[in-house]
Design a protein that fits this description.
Helix content is about 30%, strand content about 35%. The N and C termini lie far apart (about 35 Å). The mean pLDDT is about 95. It has a single domain, classed as Gcn5-related N-acetyltransferase (GNAT) (Aminopeptidase), CATH 3.40.630.30. The longest helix is centred in the middle third of the chain and has 16 residues. By secondary structure, it is α+β, with helices and mostly antiparallel strands. It has an eight-stranded mixed beta sheet, sandwiched between helices. The protein is globular and about 40 Å long. Helix 4 runs antiparallel to helix 6. The protein contains six helices and eight strands.
């Protein structure tokens, strides 16, 4: 499969019980600006504020970003990126949620929708995640999927204006997907 073929199969909208994921567009910008107003949201992101994130995220050539919506209002974003269709692999990342939506189930359902789409519609065999190695909150969330910790890439990226970042890598394989899906469904049921 070629890159264009994989990207052409990505859904413009994924809908769940708590959240909908819509292809990020200009119509989401003001809502995302409000959702991303809390500086705590940006502590572990590649950029350190919502305006820089918006500038990098509207129509990027290398990823497919979604706005995460609750009752039609943006509360964050997540993306498919690092496409490797020849290996049937994709990354889910560049994910953030407004602090007011932390522990609400919004991120749990967003991960469920994206993983389901990756494995069941795009035919992926592997989905990857990476985060700042110091970001304990996200690392706990990835381990709770459960995804498998694969190690630390030392000084992997320059972020937030030149800060050196070690990245912790995780993955879910297609044969692990049924267990991960069942776990996410159980976790989501607590919020619905």
């Amino acid at each position: 499969m070629h890159l264009d073929a994989m990207q052409d199969r990505i859904a413009e909208r994924l809908s769940g019980r708590l959240v909908s994921l819509e292809r990020l567009g200009p119509e989401h910008v003001e809502g995302l600006r409000r959702a991303g107003a809390d500086p705590a949201v940006w502590r572990w992101m590649v950029v350190d504020n919502v305006d820089d994130w918006i500038e990098d995220s509207i129509d990027p050539p290398d990823r497919f970003p979604y706005a995460t919506l609750v009752s039609g209002e943006p509360v964050g974003s997540t993306s498919f990126l690092a496409f490797a269709p020849e290996h049937r692999r994709v990354e889910i990342g560049a994910t953030w949620v407004a602090s007011s939506a932390w522990n609400s189930g919004a991120n749990v359902e967003a991960k469920l929708l994206m993983l389901r789409h990756a494995f069941e519609d795009l035919g992926c065999l592997r989905v990857e995640f990476k985060t700042d190695a110091l970001n304990e909150r996200t690392r706990r969330a990835l381990e709770a999927l459960p995804s498998q910790f694969e190690g630390i890439h030392r000084r992997h990226m320059l972020v937030r204006g030149g800060e050196r970042r070690d990245s912790a890598w995780y993955s879910v394989l297609v044969d692990e997907w049924p267990e991960v899906e069942a776990n996410l469904e159980r976790r989501l049921a607590r919020h619905v």
